[in-house]
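Quick one before lunch.
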Amino acid sequence: MSDTILVIGACGQIGTELTLQLRKKYGKDAVIASDIREGNEELMHSGKFEFLDATDKNAIETIIDKYQINQVYLMAAMLSVVAEKFPDKAWNLNMNSLFNVLNLAKEKKIEKVFWPSSIAVFGNSTPKNKTPQETITEPSTVYGISKISGERWCAYYHDKFGVDVKSVRYPGIISWKANPGGGTTDYAVEIFYEALKNHHYNCFLSENTRLPMMYIDDAIKATIDLMEKDRLPQFTSYNIAATDFTPKEIASAIKKEITDFTIDYKPDFRQEIADSWPNSIDDTKARTHWNWKPDFNLQKMTLEMLTNLKLKFDREVQNLDV
Ligand code: AKB
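Model of the 2-amino-3-ketobutyric acid complex:
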């Protein structure tokens, strides 16, 4: 039987490009997008879309039956900054959506699950540089607590009930098609918008805050490559790394292209979250288990972001003129 895929949370930053790439690969009819809200035009017009609340198990099951879904990518989540403001809602969304999907897999309604974890599983007691795959995971954020709990639940369902669930720990993701929503690493996307529009950025993190980061194309490649691997003997939420940089370093990469770009640093409450996360990640296990390898470093990503955002802004102006 051929695969039919449901992406839950398809309108978010990663969900949007994941859905588009899956449609390109498997055909538009094989990939159903779903979310609680509508997405951008490209996503909405490139295949089928269903409104879906990820905390409603019956609603997920109805869509699974309707389209004979056998794979689910569960991308719906409340990220680190918003989760600190709404801890109960974050716990409800991040955990119950996962239970719903894991239980549907346990009941053999679906065969394969992808669930994203994050570098937020690490905390102040974790080694900061080249953070290993297996290490201390004592997160200090609501989001991080939900992610480390989710990892343990995935391992539990994998071992006890034979559920085929796969996962990576995403670093900060940089993209231009859909905006990130409510994360600590969002500054590394905002900076490009502000650089092009105002030639200036007020950064909410301090200049030397180093964080692990990745361009969206690498994140999508890692996700799909891992899902295409055969069942793994052990559940692991894999560390994946591409690059790491500070606000000062990304600002100077942008300055090479936009010479009058300036930046000010006004750290706020998000600094504490960033300070609890690693500077860089050791992803040896992903590299050896399934040949993970990134394509984008800071400068290549910077050029890609500026080129694509310029084209996007031009298209927006042209549409306004029509
Ligand atoms: C966040 O900043 O909350 C996310 C993440 C690192 O998982 N981008």
